[in-house]
Amino acid sequence: MFKLAHISDIHLGPLPRLSIRELASKRITGFVNWHRNRRKHLFGGTLDLLLEDIKSKQADHLAVTGDLVNLASGIEIRTAAEWLKTLGDPAFTSVVPGNHDAYVPGSYEKAMRAWYPYVQGDHAPADWQEDRRIFPYLRIRDNVALIGCSTAVATPPFAASGFYSARQARETVNMLRAAGEAGLFRVVMIHHPPIRGATSFYKRMIGIRRFAAVISTGGAELVLHGHTHLNTLHWLRGPTGQVPVVGIASASQGPGGLKPAAAYNLFTIAGHPGAWELKAERFSLNARGDDIQPQGVDILPS
Question: Where would I find the Calcineurin-like phosphoesterase domain in this sequence (predicted)?
Fold first, then answer.
């Protein structure tokens, strides 16, 4: 039995002081949005409560599906690296980046360099290499294959779309097939929801059809994503049946906002190839914002 916890859209705050040079870019729109909207509902203490509850459930692994930062400034990226260290050994936490982690040109590379131990495949070089394509990566933990994909790209102002490339698709299919042949339960992690209509046009994932082809061809047992700040369940067609695609609320969202309060998913994986058992539980911040409570259990086909 393997327990996998899932959080997303951390948006570590508070927003640091930025220079005029840093604000002379797309960051100015995000800066204004933070002060008008996000800072009213995103709370660091909320994230601490989630992490404490995850620890109490004795999860074997933590999946973080993007948006660790807000405007991807150098200070934010370094702060996120220090926060990741507080989670423990990188071998037990797997990260994929989101659009906020690639907010402006150059920020994606800085973030991946700083967070490399958490986005590093099992057989990747020990140190960051500038010209190496990290994604997709493969990590095997017990009888579970964790495959991390990236949709993080810098976009123009007022856009938050992601891109899933043909190269990633080819390599992801190969990883999924190999993991399936090895008898592993396959979990794909991605930031943008790979579901048409799951988010607005300017926040969409470019390459949704490509990703759907990957799952229908390569096969998977579970897909995890973030980006929408919503608790959702969708389905994609796999080679032998439907594959659950699960989203989760922002891990820093306080109560009383337009989006649901902070939550995490806890998946319990048991069984064997052809007879996997997947239990999905969701735990969420209560209305007072001072405790985490269970929200329900689903037994998902796999």
Answer: 3-229
* Domain contains 301: no
Which residues have CB under 8 Å from 233's CB, separation 6+?
244, 245, 246, 247, 298
pLDDT in tens, 17-33: 555 455 445 554 544 45
Domain range for 206 is 2-295
pLDDT at 30: 46
Strands (E) located in 193-300: 205-206, 222-224, 232-237, 242-247, 263-272, 275-285, 292-300
Mean of the pLDDT values across residues 99-121? 95
Contact by Cβ (8 Å): 75, 44: no
Residue 258 lies in a domain: yes
User: Is 81 inside a domain boundary?
Assistant: yes
Please state the pTM of the whole predicted model: 0.90
| Cβ atoms of residues 186 and 212 within 8 Å | no
Q: Which of 62, 79, 59, 82 is nearest to 70 (CA)?
A: 79
In the DSSP assignment, the letter for residue 39 is G
Q: For residues 14 and 186, what is the distance between their CA atoms, to the nearest angstrom?
A: 36
Identify whether 14 is preceded by a cis peptide bond (ω within 30 of 0). Answer: yes
Answer positive or negative: Cα dihedral of 120, 123, 126, 130. negative
Q: Measured in whole angstroms, how far is the alpha carbon of residue 267 from the centre of its chain?
A: 15
Residue 115 has pLDDT above 90, yes or no: yes
CA distance 229 to 13: 16
Two structure tokens written together for 154: 């810098």
pLDDT digits (tens, 9 = 90+) for 65-75: 999 998 888 88
Place of tokens 């058992």: 277
